[in-house]
Amino acid sequence: MIIRDSMLRDMAKLVAWYPLRWCVMALPWRFAYFLGEAVGLAESLILRKRKNRIAANLLAVYGRRVTQAEALQIARQNIQRHYIEHMELYKYATLNTANLSHHITFEGLDHLEQALRLGRGVILVHMHYGCKQFPLVALGIMGYDVSQIGYRDTEEETHSWVHKNVHLRIRMRLENQFRVKHIHVGKSLRPAYEALKHNGILMITGDGIGGVRGAGENYLPLPFLGRTMLFPPGPSRMARTTGAVILPLFCVQQRDFTHLAVIGEPITMQRTDDRKHDVRQITAQYTRIFETFVNRHPEHWMFWEEFQEGVLIPKSGSHEGSSGHLENEPLEKL
Known about the structure:
Layout: H1 7-26, H2 29-46, H3 48-62, H4 68-91, E1 104-107, H5 109-116, E2 122-126, H6 133-141, E3 146-150, H7 161-175, E4 181-184, H8 190-197, E5 201-205, E6 220-224, E7 227-231, H9 234-242, E8 245-253, E9 259-263, H10 275-296
Parallel strand pairs: 1-9, 2-5, 2-8, 3-4, 3-5
Antiparallel strand pairs: 6-7, 8-9
């Protein structure tokens, strides 16, 4: 989602990170989910611009398959999930080996175990989809050696003082309590390569950073949802260099607010003398899988607002090259 700082948003962040966080930490998990849905509903009703932008981008993709009312409903659910993820961040410290299975289950964990037995490390490539940090936290609690590459720039000039000194710093403090290692974009990536060298698990997003920063100059234009979207080549480059296995990962929230973490089959890697071609082919494989999951649960993808020209779609965006999943995949609304 695109977050634009303002005085009103800064005031909301102060409330969220202090009295609200303290309340959520003290109360049961179900209260956190109720509050996340309530805050998301309130924003979608009062501040309608974001909901309308998301709905417009949904209609641009699914216009013949959803009505405007349905697109607005998906947009509202999308905003609610954004806030649910924030509420979960407050509660992660209460998770342990005894209660973890009450909140999340894994499908395809055997794919991870088989990949680790190869001894070359594993890259779990995921999207900003659902509650994306829950599998990270869970795998750490389960005893896996997990690292995450993420973006937390506290010096970004466009951020407000509250965003940099309250929002990001408290968030980083909470994330540092996870039983995982954090590797921040903009610093040396040597720890990431070291993690794979020692047969560790590296989690990295495959759909970029998002927000107003949009796509990087080296991003690859690939077919996605009937458009051409820009994807970061980092996961594929790292896998090709190290020989690590790439597994796609998704976290789907169920109706009862539990989560299903789905670990897919390994991405096929064919190494040739053409490095750029190899990276593009690897990336194209998991973006097709990304597309399938977005079509199944569009309300889970957090980058609908960025799915526009000049952000994740190149300004000269091509409508060619759709991977053809749109007519076959159901839209399942939770």
